Amino acid sequence: MSVIMYKLLIFAFCFNCVYGYFTLRGRCPEKVDLQENFRLADFYGKWYQSYHYSSDGQQMNNCSVSELMTRPSGIYLNQSRVDRGLFHRFSISKLDIPADIEKGSQLRVIFNNKNAPRRLQTRKYPFHVLATNYNYYATVYTCNYSPLIDKHFIYVWILSRNPVLNEVSKTLATKPLQQIGVDPAHLVKDDWSRCTPKYYTEEWVEPTTFRFPVPI
Questions:
Q1: Which of 3, 72, 154, 163 has its CA 20 to 30 A from that of 19?
Q2: What is the pTM of this model?
């Protein structure tokens, strides 16, 4: 197989992956009203993913837990999950905090993978807080846009301080979803009945909700 043919096959494979990942037409939603006066200090602690929405339909984040950690080099977000009831996985990213306090809810997560090609070693993604009362619920979303096919991808986390989110908090958490074009009826409730993995992996893995780090 020639080098040119090999590159064409790789491009075709990547294009198909991108096409399946980016499923919503146009750019990411603009002029979205995020959480006002966001207080990062009050966001610390464990958050359970009670509901989620993925515009490409992927269902990988069972028993997902998010938690902020402080290290000498900064603040990090640890997102763990159980895949198919079998494997424990975790992805740790550095939190990029806006300098402007009025934009405090416009967070970004930065993933560093030294084993990846140079172009892909540092990956940055939005991690925007739509709403939270810090004690019961939080609504967070990420959105990525592909200029190549003029489509975008959205993932939504409906987080809870407990594995079960009460109905009042769920109503408050889902209310702002209309701003980003997500119907609450399409949310998937997380199953917390299979959260003891058969295998445990103590190593960093690629995050399932942040797959394409560069404009495609």
A1: 3
A2: 0.82
